[in-house]
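Intended use. Records like the one below are meant for learning the mapping from a protein sequence to its folded structure. Do not use them to infer anything beyond what is encoded.
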Amino acid sequence: MKNIAIMMLVFFAFAKAYSQDVTGKWKTIDENSGEVKSHVEIYKKGDSYYGKVLKVLAKDAPENPKCVECEGKLKDQPIEGMVIIKDLKKQGKMYKEGTVIDPENGKSYDCKIWLNEDNPDVLMVRGYVLFLYRTQTWERL
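Structure written out for the chain above:
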């Protein structure tokens, strides 16, 4: 009986580890200072994945920050509540073919994201144009 209980615990631990995906709440980290900049929620809508800013936490951010550098409909819109990742499609372990907006400069980039193979509580977020890219590391909340 004791062996069965141990086997069930091991099974559920592995099942949880392997069932994790990118959905959930993440903290974004400034790669230079290590400061937590914001909380973002990744969610699935239809067959696509999106990321919405829940809270801006950067110490140098103004109260109720707005996307002053954005263009079009996003110009001067609140960053909190803004959907910054759009239209990602799951392809194997990667989520690709979407876009990400950097609210600090208002620019939009092609985007792909994936879970760190060694730690599913770490999300790799890459914005890129052609062969130029920047990858951020986000941590699960």
